[in-house]
């Protein structure tokens, strides 16, 4: 079985809702990211076997296989196929998994994986035609038999997790404050420069706050009445795109590529769809078990900050030191452009591994429907 190497990974800065990227068509935003990735690596776009793209809200301007539309909008070869997938927030992380699996199986040699979401144009929980509803089967008979008539959404899930794991709300506010502080430091030290694709004049992640005030955070209204999480403790709605070039050993040699890391282990799990957001715990355990590695072997972790409670419960459940987690900030500061976030986390992780000469990195994220992916990378 051949290895699957990450040759390079790039991303746009994340734009705030209504911010600098909000006027971009998703196909153009992702297309610019594809071009930048191929130009940086020097790979021949005509030799790419497949393009796999994650996008959650596949409607409106993100409908009709936005991955294919992005590839063609970028002026890239028509004979290269593309597909758009939806594993909710982990869509582009799953895209990398599918790419690595195809390469390890020997079916393909060069695959572009990535994701896009312009939430300013297609908001969270968009339903397209209102007559069709949101699309989740909460009013279906089968669902009702399994889970009854209860409130199901990520905001309740985040609060239930905080209650079940006995999380201290003050710890949650400190985590949020630290996320912004770490992201600001990363910006000041130029840590993101190696991974950025400049689009529409946006040169930095727009959601980072340098004037964080924990008292102001405490004063924000809860997202749910009498709930635990408020806007300061949740990921920011954002716009963005990301892309990763995955190659086989043969492609690395034939194209003269220099890989950054290899995809060591990949896992995906299902978990409680009512809690929704607990999947990173079993996904991380599964990845570690399959890899033969332990928590102490991992130098850097990326756990998506969908909510502060998600990261704290995951770290508490697995005994992970937060000093190794999201060292350059997370989605509470950098934003969470749903379909792009999985490859965004991978981009941030692999470049930080190179910068610090870390050997192993692990990323994981919770996903709608009670799902989660985890990926272990090894620097080469």
Q: How would you sum up this structure, described in words?
A:
- This protein is α/β, with parallel strands linked by helices and 380 residues long.
- Among the domains are: 139 residues, Thiolase/Chalcone synthase (Peroxisomal Thiolase, Chain A, domain 1, 3-Layer(aba) Sandwich), CATH 3.40.47; 116 residues, Peroxisomal Thiolase, Chain A, domain 1 (3-Layer(aba) Sandwich), CATH 3.40.47.10.
- The protein has 12 helices and 10 strands.
- Strands 1, 2, 3, 4, 5, 6, 7, 8, 9 and 10 form a 10-stranded mixed beta sheet that branches.
- Helix 5 packs parallel to helix 10.
- Keywords: Acyltransferase, Transferase.
- Belongs to the thiolase-like superfamily. Thiolase family.
- Its EC number is 2.3.1.9.
- This is Acetyl-CoA C-acetyltransferase.
The fraction of residues assigned to DSSP E strands is 15-25%
- Compute the gyration radius: what is it? 19 Å
| Tally of strands | 10
What is the overall silhouette? globular
CATH superfamily of one domain: Thiolase/Chalcone synthase
Sheet having the most strands: 10 strands, mixed
Supply the helix-strand structural class.
Answer: alpha/beta
Low-confidence regions: none
CATH top-level class of one domain: Alpha Beta
Helix residue percentage = 25-40%
CATH architecture of one domain: 3-Layer(aba) Sandwich
Total of DSSP H or I helical runs spanning 4+ residues: 12
CATH topology name of one domain: Peroxisomal Thiolase, Chain A, domain 1
Distance between the termini: 18 Å
């Amino acid at each position: 079985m051949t290895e699957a190497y990450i040759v390079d990974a790039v991303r746009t800065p994340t734009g705030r809702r209504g911010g600098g990227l909000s006027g971009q068509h998703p196909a153009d935003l992702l297309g610019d990211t594809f071009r930048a990735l191929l130009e940086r690596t020097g790979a021949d776009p005509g030799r790419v076997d497949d393009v796999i793209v994650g996008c959650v809200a596949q409607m409106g301007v993100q409908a009709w296989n936005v991955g294919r539309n992005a590839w063609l909008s970028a002026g890239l070869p028509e004979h290269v196929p593309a597909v758009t997938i939806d594993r909710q927030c982990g869509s582009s992380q799953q895209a990398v998994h599918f790419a690595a699996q195809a390469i390890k199986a020997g079916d393909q040699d060069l695959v572009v994986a990535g994701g896009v979401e312009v939430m300013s144009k297609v908001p969270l929980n968009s339903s397209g035609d209102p007559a069709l509803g949101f699309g989740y089967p909460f009013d279906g008979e089968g669902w009702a038999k399994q889970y009854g008539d209860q409130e199901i959404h990520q905001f309740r899930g985040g609060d239930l997790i905080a209650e079940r794991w006995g999380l201290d709300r003050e710890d949650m506010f400190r985590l949020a404050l630290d996320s912004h502080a770490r992201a600001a430091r990363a910006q000041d030290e130029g840590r993101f420069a190696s991974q950025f694709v400049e689009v529409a004049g946006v040169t930095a992640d727009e959601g980072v706050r340098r004037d964080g005030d924990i008292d102001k955070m405490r004063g924000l209204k809860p997202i749910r009445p009498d709930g635990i999480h408020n806007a300061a403790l949740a990921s920011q709605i954002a716009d963005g795109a990301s892309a990763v070039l995955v190659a086989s050993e043969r492609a690395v040699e034939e194209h003269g590529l220099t890989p950054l890391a290899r995809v060591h282990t990949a896992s995906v799990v299902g978990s409680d769809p009512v809690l929704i957001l607990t999947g990173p715990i079993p996904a991380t355990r599964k990845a570690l078990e399959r890899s033969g590695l332990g928590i102490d072997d991992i130098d850097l972790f990326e756990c998506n900050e969908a909510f502060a409670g998600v990261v704290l419960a995951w770290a508490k459940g697995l005994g992970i030191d937060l000093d190794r987690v999201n060292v350059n900030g997370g989605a509470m500061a950098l934003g969470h452009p749903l379909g792009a976030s999985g490859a965004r986390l991978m981009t941030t992780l692999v470049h930080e591994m190179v910068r610090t000469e870390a050997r192993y990195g692990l990323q994981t994220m919770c996903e709608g429907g009670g799902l989660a992916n985890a990926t272990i990378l090894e620097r080469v």
